Amino acid sequence: MKPVEFEGVNRVFGEDQPQYIPLPVQKDEKGRVISCWELTDEEIEKIKETKRIWIGQLTFNEPLQPILPSVDKKTIEDAEY
Length: 81
Prior knowledge:
The protein has one domain. It contains two helices and five strands; from the N terminus they run βββββαα. It has helices at 41-50, 73-77, and strands at residues 2-4, 11-13, 23-27, 33-34, 36-38. The chain is of the alpha+beta class. 19% of the residues lie in helices and 20% in strands.
């Protein structure tokens, strides 16, 4: 799975940090950050088989930030919080 560019990208996290994969995102004035990830054919097959995804977050011992996984960008854009 890899992060991919999409229409609306206005920032790239980790761009100058070689230890990380650059993460293109769309960040808005509310602080909402949207990224898009492309799966390999093997990953798609694994999801079909298990119906599961795993999410790892590096918190650096700071509070955990909420996440909203989705298969549709509009779901994230329309979320109330």
